[in-house]
Design brief:
The complex is a heterodimer. Chain A contains 17 helices and 24 strands. Chain A is globular, with a radius of gyration of 26 Å. Helix content of chain A is 29%, strand content 19%. By secondary structure, chain B is mainly alpha-helical. Helices cover 68% and strands 2% of the residues of chain B. In chain B, helix 2 packs antiparallel against helix 11 and helix 6 runs antiparallel to helix 9. The chains are: A alpha+beta, B mainly alpha. At the A-B interface, helix 1, helix 7, helix 10, helix 12 and strand 18 of A face helix 13 of B.
């Protein structure tokens, strides 16, 4: 019979395949570096970086993803920017004057700043760029962040020709007038969206425009091979003397993460951040490489969101039971190199995070007690009692999401909450768990739009963030006291008073438990020894502006990389946390 | 013989192996299943014979429970597919070339309308509409209302075999995946039905050919001459004569079903976790193949043995049942 013959062949092929998987090659040696000292950075060279994802646009008025923003901020400098730790500093602005009432911010620009096309930057360019980015015809995904600037709402509704709240008060002086005092104004302004663009950018977004700004790098014609690579070259007229030190940066996109690691080891890319857990463990275990790596905090939070409008999670005691029943250390062990236990609503390293506020913790006896108080006593010895109905739990098809779901399922079974895991595509997961009255409990996460606690609290827990579809508040949690606190904190300019409000808000969320907060991530980034200053950046992935290279020989860097970007496209849809 | 031995080994492994281990296939062992230095699962050892999986459960016990599931699904889905395929094949083959029967036109119209309504999400209307069409047709036939009983002249063989042709024009795995993704809740029962209801097409074609061969033999003619009815001829005379090839095809089909179930689980449209299935175990282990090769080798070899075993068994049965040898 023919099928038997075929199965013999298949069997032989499978055996060959399996026998090949057992061996794991040792990692290659780090490549040699030159003799430059850390104190005297060398100028020149091309930094080459790989990514498994891709970018869509290089226009500040349209970009909204981490990889795209990383390139956009190199092309466009802003009035203010984030340093590597996420703190705001003045960049194109020489100084900022805030009015007494906190309603007006006056920026005095540096003089002599040149765009990539040679024009000088003036206050008019700032106003024109803000209006271009917020124009109703520009597809700006973060436009709503700026509605507190006076006149923006009228402008986006086409009721006015210009934004009344942005005024030009001199050739180099521009003032932003706000509707209410706002502690998040400067961090939001430091994002890429409103950064000055050349006059060629016109008055609104256009997808045929060649990006042109005041940033340290510029794009030459042909520099962006869509879906494959992007090369940015130094802007020689950049306003900071001797910066940037690199001649160029090349990003490769759509590179399969395993291919990326091979390219890194062979010296075709200079640094890598897309390591699988298995590879992370290998690099960490190798003393030659461990010293060349650094942990990059992911600035995202994860937990189990419980729908406060659906049984049994409309009962606060059940929610508390869940928050106490999940052993977060078990979740950490599922991916020990990358998962960090954090039960705060704000990830570590984001302004507003306070490690001293007590969090939800694993306490099995307390969880059983909460179940009893909820009216669902459970006897662990007999396995009887608990919540009488099975609960559907939607997770998405991706390694860690599936594993974490099963660990949570085991923990909840121990207090008499029995969940059925349904694994669906990411799109189905989003549409199921972000719709009202559909999902009782689901794994949720939030990664920062801008480095500030308000982004996390307001997106996830304000009653205003509840929508019938595509809701941000997946717990459908409504608490007027929390709403007031968060609004107060948003407009409070005194850092201490603001922190106190957030600490209070965190305590409310801990006790009301709309989420069982569980974990965050950290990624291990490794670079070759000749790469200096390439530290993880709080907002822009990597601190490329301060990077310099010190290669031992020029030969290594001159390998043609772009022609070798090939078969990674199958993996473009991989989630970051799937690494 | 080797095939029978492999299948017996698999059955024994599925039901006896869990007795050898104290681990529960669904429960993680976060204390002994983890290597404390790296946080990765432990490899094969005396406590975990085939190592621990990505969530620190015993791979050996999970493999055995996966075997139970694979055997259950393989055998049950084949039973459904063979029964359906044999029934369709016999009816089609026996009626091949015979004059047809008339389907009164209200019936196909009502059924097509019902299908359209069902697709549109109006299931109650669809059922009511279809029932209405059936009742009208029955009334029309009973009361011999001529203009209502006129309709499509059909032949059982043509109708059924075109259906089989359409089904076979889709690659089997693609068809199974499409149906699998459309089924919302993935349980053992639903996977079994998906495989069973899509796997009968080839069997039907084979049985039809065999039936056509047998129905023209003298003993069938004799039986009919002695006054035997169609049902009696089909079940007492034709079915026993096609049993040999049916058994052979079914045995090989078990291997196909096991493979199909693994593919579905691997692609994530199979049974939901934490239920252990070989295909999903392969999926869970693949990212780790360099660090923990046992996680892909164990389910991979299990699938290999099962498919190999059933294929060899089928071949052996064919040789044993073939009267020419």
């Amino acid at each position: 019979m023919r099928s038997t013959h075929a199965s013999k062949l298949t069997g032989a092929a499978l055996l060959v395949l399996l026998s090949g998987t057992g061996c794991s090659d040792p990692l290659a040696d780090p490549l040699p570096h030159g003799n430059a000292s850390e104190a005297a950075p060398v100028r020149g060279g091309t930094l080459r970086l790989g990514n498994f994802g891709d970018i869509r646009t290089l226009d500040p008025a349209a970009s909204s993803d981490q990889l795209g923003d990383e390139a956009v901020q190199l092309l466009f400098s802003g009035l203010v920017d984030f340093d590597a730790k996420g703190a705001v500093f003045t960049d194109l602005a020489e100084k900022i004057d805030r009015s007494e009432d906190g309603l007006a911010y006056t920026f005095t620009l540096r003089t002599g700043v040149r765009f990539h096309d040679g024009d000088e930057l003036t206050a008019d360019d700032v106003k024109r760029s803000v209006e271009r980015s917020l124009h109703p015809d520009s597809p700006n995904p973060v436009g709503s962040f700026f509605e507190n600037i006076a006149g923006v709402i009228e402008y986006t509704q086409r009721k006015s020709e210009h934004i009344s709240g942005v005024t030009v008060d001199g050739r180099y002086v521009v003032t932003f007038h706000l509707l209410r005092s706002d502690a998040t104004f400067l961090p939001l302004l430091a994002l890429h969206a409103l950064r000055p663009v050349c006059k060629s950018g016109g008055d609104r977004y256009s997808d045929s425009w060649a990006p042109c700004g005041t940033g340290p790098f510029k794009l030459l014609p042909g520099g962006w091979d869509r879906g494959r690579s992007l090369t940015l070259v130094r802007h020689d007229a950049y306003f900071k003397p001797d910066m940037p030190r690199l001649d160029a940066v090349t990003f490769l996109y759509n590179v399969n993460i395993v291919t990326e690691r091979f390219k890194f080891e062979s010296g075709e890319i200079d640094a890598i951040r897309d390591l699988t857990q298995a590879d992370t463990v290998r690099f960490l275990a190798d003393p030659r490489w461990k010293a060349l790596g650094a942990y990059e905090p992911a600035r995202e939070i994860h937990g189990e969101s419980m729908n406060t409008e659906m049984a049994p999670f409309d009962n606060v005691e059940v929610r508390r039971a869940v928050a106490a029943a999940i052993d977060r250390d078990h979740l950490r062990l599922l991916r020990a190199a990358n998962v960090i236990v954090s039960a705060h609503p704000v990830p570590p390293d984001v302004p507003g995070f306070n490690a001293n506020v007590p969090t939800q913790t694993y306490d099995y006896q307390a969880a059983l007690e909460h179940m009893k108080r909820a009216g669902y006593p459970y006897d662990p010895k007999t396995g009887e009692g608990g919540y009488p109905h099975r609960i559907s739990y939607t997770a998405y098809k991706q390694g860690f999401s599936e594993f974490a779901a099963q660990a949570v399922q085991q923990d909840l079974a121990k207090i008499g909450i029995r969940i059925d895991i349904k694994i669906v595509s990411f799109a189905t997961y989003l549409s199921t768990t972000h719709r009202r009255h559909v999902s009782a409990i689901s794994p949720q996460g939030w990664s920062q739009d801008y480095p500030d606690a308000s982004d996390f609290y307001e997106s996830l827990f304000l009653s205003r963030s509840i929508n019938e579809e595509d809701t941000g508040n997946t717990s459908f949690y409504k608490n007027p006291e929390l709403d007031d606190l968060l609004d107060k904190a948003h407009h409070e300019l005194d850092p201490q008073k603001r922190q106190a409000s957030y600490d209070h808000a965190e305590a409310i969320l801990r006790d009301d438990a709309p989420w069982a907060f569980t974990h965050s991530y950290r990624w291990f980034d490794v670079h070759q020894p000749y790469v200096h200053g390439l530290a993880p950046h709080a907002t822009w992935v990597w601190d490329i502006q301060n990077t310099w290279l010190d290669r031992a020989t020029a030969a290594i860097s001159r390998r043609s990389v772009i022609s070798e970007v090939s078969f990674g496209s199958l993996f473009t849809t991989r989630e970051k946390s799937d690494r | 013989m080797l095939g029978a031995a492999l299948v017996l080994f698999l059955v024994a492994f599925a039901w006896l192996a869990p007795l050898l281990s104290s681990h529960d296939p669904m429960i993680s062992d976060f204390t002994n299943g983890v290597r404390p230095d790296t946080g990765t699962p432990v490899g094969p050892s005396s406590a975990f014979w085939f190592g621990a999986d990505r969530i620190f459960r015993d791979e050996f016990v999970r493999l055995a429970f996966g075997a139970r599931l694979s055997l259950l699904i393989g055998v049950s889905a084949t039973a459904i597919a063979s029964a359906l395929g044999a029934a369709v094949g016999i009816v089609a083959g026996y009626n091949e070339g015979r004059s047809g029967f008339v389907i009164p036109w209200p019936l196909p119209i009502a059924l097509a309308g019902g299908l359209a309504l069902a697709v549109g999400g109006h299931s109650t209307l669809a059922i009511v509409g279809s029932l209405f069409g059936i009742v009208i047709s029955v009334v029309a036939i009973k009361s011999q209302i001529r203009f209502l009983t006129a309709g499509v002249d059909m032949n059982f063989d043509i109708a059924l075999m075109r259906l089989v042709d359409i089904g076979l024009s889709f690659p089997f795995l693609l068809l199974v995946m499409a149906v699998g993704s459309a089924v919302d809740r993935t349980s053992v029962g639903s996977i079994l039905l998906v495989l069973g209801l899509t796997g009968w097409l080839g069997t039907a074609r084979l049985v039809r050919a065999k039936t056509m061969q047998i129905r023209s033999r003298d003993f069938i003619l004799a039986a009919r001459g002695l006054g035997a009815g169609t049902t009696r001829i089909l079940f007492r005379h034709i079915l026993p004569n096609i049993a040999g090839p049916l058994i052979v095809v079914s045995t090989v089909s078990v291997a196909q079903m096991i493979l199909a179930e693994s593919v579905l689980s691997y692609l994530g449209v199979g049974i939901s976790p934490p239920t252990p299935t070989w295909g999903h175990m392969l999926f869970e282990g693949q990212d780790y193949y360099a660090a923990a090769p046992w996680l892909v080798i164990a389910p991979g070899v299990a699938i290999l043995i099962a498919v190999f075993g059933f294929n060899l068994l089928g071949e052996g049965l064919r040789d044993a049942l073939d009267p020419r040898e």
